[in-house]
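In the design runs reported in the main text, the only information available to the sequence generator was the tokenized backbone. The following block is the verbatim input for one such run; it is reproduced so that readers can re-run the procedure and compare outputs position by position.
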């Protein structure tokens, strides 16, 4: 949740206009209403879907004269009470969630359902934060996080692909994310495919799907990265085992 708000304030939410400015040729129309170009101000405030979401709260804002949504949110974070900030965050996050459902899964979620889902998500986030504050490291304990992702070379994109399969399931999932050299999100995709396969097979299939997706998008200078060392090694050695 903090990352979403940080990206919003940095004007780095990957709406269509932002992705277009980075060289991704996609339709610019708002996926929620198809009536206007999708920029941050339109998607979160001017779109009919967004207005319906805001109307389900007690929050009323006059957006006339607002040019930059990021500046507007920064001002609200500084001037509004904690409860109102949480509610503002709730509305923004459920609009973004519903928008992504529409874009990536072609599912339109009603504003009332989006409100309920976002409320549960934020409540869970608040509980997790409170619990985290109660847990203190023991003397000598080191708490750290390791980030292994490395940016691609200048002018290149990196596609990270991962796959998930559970023993006994009759289907598996594949997730893909494309970022640029600055680590900015360009686009993503997830699939659920029917079939009984093992972990190695699904990881290999994920790489194949990623390559096909790059071809469909007609992208150039893209590095595909998988966390399966066995698949990467087999591909580098030209192994026929994976075919």
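Verbatim output:
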């Amino acid at each position: 949740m903090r990352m979403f708000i940080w990206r919003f304030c940095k004007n780095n939410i990957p709406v269509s206009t932002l992705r277009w400015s980075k060289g991704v040729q996609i339709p610019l129309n708002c996926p929620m209403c198809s009536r206007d170009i999708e920029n941050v101000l339109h998607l979160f405030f001017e779109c009919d879907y967004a207005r319906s979401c805001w109307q389900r709260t007690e929050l009323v804002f006059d957006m006339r004269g607002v040019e930059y949504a990021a500046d507007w949110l920064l001002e609200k974070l500084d001037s509004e009470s904690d409860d109102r900030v949480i509610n503002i965050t709730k509305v923004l996050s459920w609009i973004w969630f519903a928008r992504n459902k529409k874009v990536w899964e072609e599912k339109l979620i009603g504003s009332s359902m989006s409100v309920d889902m976002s409320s549960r998500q934020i409540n869970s986030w608040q509980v997790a934060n409170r619990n985290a504050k109660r847990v203190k490291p023991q003397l000598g304990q080191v708490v750290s996080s390791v980030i292994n992702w490395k940016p691609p070379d200048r002018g290149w994109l990196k596609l990270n692909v991962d796959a998930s399969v559970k023993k006994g399931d009759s289907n598996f999932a594949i997730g893909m994310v494309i970022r640029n050299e600055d680590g900015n999100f360009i686009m993503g995709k997830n699939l659920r495919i029917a079939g009984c396969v093992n972990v190695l097979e699904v990881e290999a299939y994920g790489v194949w799907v990623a390559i096909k997706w790059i071809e469909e998008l007609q992208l150039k200078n893209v590095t595909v990265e998988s966390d399966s060392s066995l698949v990467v090694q087999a591909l580098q050695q030209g192994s026929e085992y994976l075919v």
